[in-house]
Design brief:
Elements lengths: L4 H37 L17 H16 L1
Length: 75
């Protein structure tokens, strides 16, 4: 009884690649399901549209301070 080693090699290669492919498909499906469940029960808070109170409204003062700091550093 003689077996062809090349055919056996292709069988094992197909079995190994099929196992890896099946694992990846299962992993992607489970991660998608987990993501859907997490988004449903733990939604991310929506950022408010109003600007924060600590943001400077007058950019001229900030620009003047930065310019003065650069002149002091170079000078």
């Amino acid at each position: 009884m003689e077996t062809n080693l090349v055919i056996e090699g292709f069988k094992f290669m197909g079995l190994g690649m099929g196992t890896v492919f099946a694992f990846l498909i299962i992993m992607i499906a489970s991660m998608s399901l987990m993501s859907t469940i997490i988004e449903k029960f733990f939604p991310e808070p929506q950022p408010s549209a109003e600007p924060s109170a600590s943001a400077p409204k007058d950019n001229k003062k900030v620009i003047a301070a930065i310019t003065a700091a650069i002149k002091h550093h170079r000078g």
